Task: structure prediction
Amino acid sequence: MDTYVDLYGIERLHAVTCTDLYLQVGANVTFSSLIEKCRQAGTTTPGFTYLKDVLAPYLEKVASTPIRNVKRSINVNFYRNYLCQGLYEQ
Result:
């Protein structure tokens, strides 16, 4: 019997935390949210201007707006749609 755990309700996985030393991105953060947080951190945190000047513009090129707002990770969808249908033998 397979067991699946839905991590969507864990708020910490939706968080983006910025300190003076690092930017921590949760596993369930959407691209849109990450782009916004990169802009904020790049504006307010010394030494992180590259987040606003380099990373945020790059992330905007990665996917269209609807794709950026997807709440589930691609890995979860891949696992459910491909591996769980028995198309991959472990």
Q: What stands out?
A: Strands lie at 16-18, 23-25. The CA atoms of residues 7 and 18 lie 22 Å apart. The chain has one domain: 11-85. The two ends are 14 Å apart (CA to CA).
